[in-house]
Design brief:
By secondary structure, the protein is an all-alpha fold. It has one domain. The chain has six helices and no strands. Helix 3 packs parallel to helix 6 and helix 5 packs antiparallel against helix 6. The longest helix has 36 residues. The protein is elongated and about 65 Å long. The two termini are 19 Å apart. Keywords: Cell inner membrane, Cell membrane, Membrane, Transmembrane, Transmembrane helix, Transport.
Length: 177
């Protein structure tokens, strides 16, 4: 189990580092939004590339911070029901939820979006808007992010099994894991 916990720690470290790095895009997205608005209203000049860059950054933030959010226990739960359960029961619910819902959905999306990316890559898909950006690189982010989310799900499974077997303490579920 110690080897698996080291794997889980490596996955946690990877997704934490990526999440922290990607979260800086929030600042850049805000600055580009302010720049686009200023250029449009002060200089009467617009840019499809700036608008699309905002959309792309928002998508990257959403996609790549999902695994970090899972690691922190920040995804939506039905706390009204689960808060009445013991920590052990909550770990079991998380374990089964990850196995039955999170992993199958993530892997399905990763596989399906890989084909979506390949088509975009082969056609060198770009924006239909004048001055827009290339879209195919962003489409690579979709399967990549869902693979990272799947890996984080595996990390959570390892940590839940370790908690259930006494290899590590049960989480307190106060503000996440």
């Amino acid at each position: 189990m110690k080897f698996l916990l080291r794997i889980a720690a490596a996955i946690d470290a990877l997704n934490t580092a990526l999440g922290r790095w990607i979260s800086w895009l929030i600042l850049f997205c805000t600055l580009i939004s302010a720049l686009a608005a200023t250029l449009r209203y002060v200089f009467d000049w617009g840019s499809n590339a700036l608008l699309e860059a905002q959309w792309f950054m928002f998508g990257l933030i959403f996609l790549f911070c999902a695994a970090w959010t899972l690691r922190l226990g920040g995804h939506v739960r039905i706390d009204i029901l689960s808060s009445r359960l013991s920590p052990r029961a909550r770990v079991w619910i998380d374990l089964f939820g990850t196995l039955l819902f999170l992993l199958p959905v993530c892997l399905l999306i990763a596989v399906d979006s890989w084909n979506f990316f390949l088509i975009a890559y082969q056609t060198r898909e770009v924006s239909p808007n004048p001055g827009g950006l290339a879209w195919w690189p962003l489409k690579f982010a979709i399967p990549t992010a869902f693979i990272l989310l799947s890996l984080q799900g595996i990390s959570e499974i390892i940590k839940h099994i370790a908690a259930l077997t006494g290899e590590r303490p049960l989480p307190d579920f106060k503000g996440g894991h």
